[in-house]
Amino acid sequence: xxxxxxxxxxxxxxxxxxxxxxxxxxxxxxxxxxxxxxxxxxxxxxxxxxxxxxxxxxxxxxxxxxxxxxxxxxxxxxxxxxxxxxxxxxxxxxxxxxxxxxxxxxxxxxxxxxxxxxxxxxxxxxxxxxxxxxxxxxxxxxxxxxxxxxxxxxxxxxxxxxxxxxxxxxxxxxxxxxxxxxxxxxxxxxxxxxxxxxxxxxxxxxxxxxxxxxxxxxxxxxxxxxxxxxxxxxxxxxxxxxxxxxxxxxxxxxxxxxxxxxxxxxxxxxxxxxxxxxxxxxxxxxxxxxxxxxxxxxxxxxxxxxxxxxxxxxxxxxxxxxxxxxxxxxxxxxxxxxxxxxxxxxxxxxxxxxxxxxxxxxxxxxxxxxxxxxxxxxxxxxxxxxxxxxxxxxxxxxxxxxxxxxxxxxxxxxxxxxxxxxxxxxxxxxxxxxxxxxxxxxxxxxxxxxxxxxxxxxxxxxxxxxxxxxxxxxxxxxxxxxxxxxxxxxxxxxxxxxxxxxxxxxxxxxxxxxxxxxxxxxxxxxxxxxxxxxxxxxxxxxxxxxxxxxxxxxxxxxxxxxxxxxxxxxxxxxxxxxxxxxxxxxxxxxxxxxxxxxxxxxxxxxxxxxxxxxxxxxxxxxxxxxxxxxxxxxxxxxxxxxxxxxxxxxxxxxxxxxxxxxxxxxxxxxxxxxxxxxxxxxxxxxxxxxxxxxxxxxxxxxxxxxxxxxxxxxxxxxxxxxxxxxxxxxxxxxxxxxxxxxxxxxxxxxxxxxxxxxxxxxxxxxxxxxxxxxxxxxxxxxxxxxxxxxxxxxxxxxxxxxxxxxxxxxxxxxxxxxxxxxxxxxxxxxxxxxxx
Length: 836
Known about the structure:
The protein is an alpha/beta fold. The protein has 42 helices and 17 strands. Helix 3 (44-58) packs parallel to helix 9 and helix 10 (207-223) crosses helix 11.
């Protein structure tokens, strides 16, 4: 497409948006018709003028009683020949942005000379769209000039003819037969409307339809260089009349397809509440115009014929579709598919579209929310492609997978996304309509808050804190049940959504092992993809955390219990994500923690895996502390507001979950001398007691240790993990029933010293805390082996304990930059853990 042509179209669009009173507002639709046919390869503006004049001039046939009168079209560039009552008239129609100078007459005059040499019985007309000036104006008005002026302009005309090898005699003959006519496009349009209304005996409301059909027909005739008679014009009149008569009995008359209506919708508030977008809301101007996407749609429509707007629900697809139709197409040429549930309905719609296409009018078919009600839409779109009818479709990912046809060709898919500049405009629009929630700080805040992916519905949900997203998702889930879809599909969605609210992905293969599916798993997952879930390296996550929160709520109303779903889902959570999954589950306000802990215990009983027990303990502790923080958030916020980040940090010391008398005494001393610590000490009485991490770990361990047999052959022991377990038992003040037998197995130095230094340290620390006496005995019995192991593992040349004094030596590496401080600290930390 040329730059000039794009500029013309753009200007046409802007005029349409500003006003509908200008007669030129109809031209963008004519441009659309021409653009669809020629794709900008020729002068669209010139063709439009020439064809309009051709149609207008052809109505002389209606004024002539002779049936043998006809017009012969010589291609789309000119209407060259008109034969009326045995008189031949040759016409050249020319367009230009600026008035012609005298030399521009050479081409049309040369063409007339060629005709004159063949036939003397002819007249010549030069029709232009620009005002006549200077010598050309005098030539056109030569009969009204004075004798002297006539002679001057004749001589100039003869000189022009001589320059293109036309004799003076031929030039004189042409001058006698020549008529130069200036008529603007607006004048043609107005006169054409009047002519058609009079000759076809029409009411004004359908005149424009006849004009566009005639323009389209003349384009076809011109390309074929056809001759047109009065009968041809009569046939057009009859076919359009039949069309209007048949419309009431065709598909759109039965509510399957209908013309778009831009009647302003009085309930504009529905738009801000997230209800389904209606054309009348767009007509009322409540939306934000997203120019970037409108231009993309326009390019796709004219390059591919069918444009698909595909995304998850609530991304502004319908708003974009209606805004495009409103700004880029005439109302009379825009239709919308209402229903196509059966093959019979689809065939009826196709018949209607075939009939209307035969009229040659441009047509845009809108298919909004292509789903169950219009599930035959791809068949209709395929027919439209064959008929060169433009189609604009909005569809959710799920329905695209359900109903799209693989055989559908020549279409382009756009997936609208929300950019920050668009988010700012939407924020301003909502703010102007008093729809912004008081907690929302700014457009940028809400945009960053929703995170990736930046989805429009999630963004507007945060702006308003409304229920529009939940209501829409509720309707979609209801469709699962109404359409008798595989129950396993809902179960997958239930588990993935819950895991996503807990900020953890699930392993796809492990999830499918524990869900009963009637259909192929690949098909099921594909149908959910990009609408509710997404794939990430063998894992499944929710599409967006806001959407997952709503789905979790919807899919756990009354039944099932969210704890049951969490326990079923935990099988599909990787070990690295278990702590996050459990801690976030426990910290949910509505979560039944006791029931969850019992379920975790049952899973431990089946696994007999010490590593899993420790991960569960970490998650339970972290979850309990998160829950405690949520209960006491107000005092942490107050500390942060008063003292900044250190305030929250030191308050956490005051409220530590693990008893520490030394720390408590130190804080009391600091409070006596430092005002800020005194302020924190005053907040401490307001702390609301609740079950904390250590309390919950005690419950979990009490139940779990009943199943734990450390002497079992199935029980695989990692000495570091065993040390961590002993550490937890010390903190929770719980004894391991099987420890009396197990310690004989594990407290053997040769076995212990074959492990890594890190494991050795964790085992030694856990044993010391769980039973200092046993640790002392273990060390005394194996001192030589332990000292040797530590010297080797720490690369020390000397290590000795004498009268409770520790001595050690090592060589400082030449590469050290701190005079051996870090090397000394590493060894000292290790020795203190193991030896003291």
